[in-house]
């Protein structure tokens, strides 16, 4: 059994460092950014979204705990009085594939209920098939989709 605990200062430092790296990698993998400046862009995005760090208003950061051990992190934000957004669910690799993602989603919904949130959203990169399957299984639906295609250059003179 797992539970959510408000993130500690030390936990936030660990989370932020890992989250910036992970987000940069995901954006590069998705083809949105180039590797050379991806870490700077990711750090700027986190700075914009969490200007006051873990104390940023309407943002709720949690450590996912199993017994006393941190096995991951959650970042939940209140976007309007009734709408929330999951910015991040991070379960450490050693604890993945043990049902903790499913349990974490249930715990997030319980937190949403306590905060008066009636609808929750999230973004998932299309290459993260495992997460997509989990979210679909828990009733999340696609509400919008961005698509791109690279155009082959025509070398005709």
From TrEMBL:
InterPro entries noted in UniProt: Acyl_CoA_acyltransferase (IPR016181), GNAT_dom (IPR000182)
Which PROSITE patterns does this UniProt record tie to the protein?
GNAT
Q: Does the keyword Transferase apply?
A: yes
Please name the GO terms that the record assigns under molecular function: acyltransferase activity, transferring groups other than amino-acyl groups
Residues annotated as domain N-acetyltransferase = 18-156
Transferase as a keyword of this entry, yes or no, is yes
Q: Which UniProt keywords apply?
A: Transferase
Q: Which Pfam families match?
A: Acetyltransf_1
Q: Give the protein's recorded name.
A: Acetyltransferase (GNAT) family protein
Source organism lineage? Bacteria, Bacillati, Bacillota, Bacilli, Bacillales
């Amino acid at each position: 059994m797992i539970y959510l605990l408000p993130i500690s200062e030390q936990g936030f430092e660990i989370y932020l460092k890992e989250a910036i790296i992970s987000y940069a990698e995901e954006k590069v993998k998705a083809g949105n950014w180039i590797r050379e400046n991806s870490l700077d862009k990711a750090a700027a995005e986190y700075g914009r979204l969490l200007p006051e760090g873990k104390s940023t208003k309407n943002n709720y950061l949690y450590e996912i705990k199993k017994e006393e051990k941190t096995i991951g992190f959650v970042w939940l934000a209140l976007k309007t009085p009734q709408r929330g957004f999951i910015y991040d669910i991070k379960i450490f690799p050693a604890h993945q594939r043990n049902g903790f993602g499913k349990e974490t989603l249930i715990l997030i919904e319980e937190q949403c209920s306590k905060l008066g949130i009636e609808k929750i959203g999230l973004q998932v990169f299309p290459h993260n098939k495992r997460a997509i399957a989990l979210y679909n299984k828990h009733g999340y639906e696609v509400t919008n989709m961005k698509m791109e295609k690279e155009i082959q250059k025509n070398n005709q003179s």
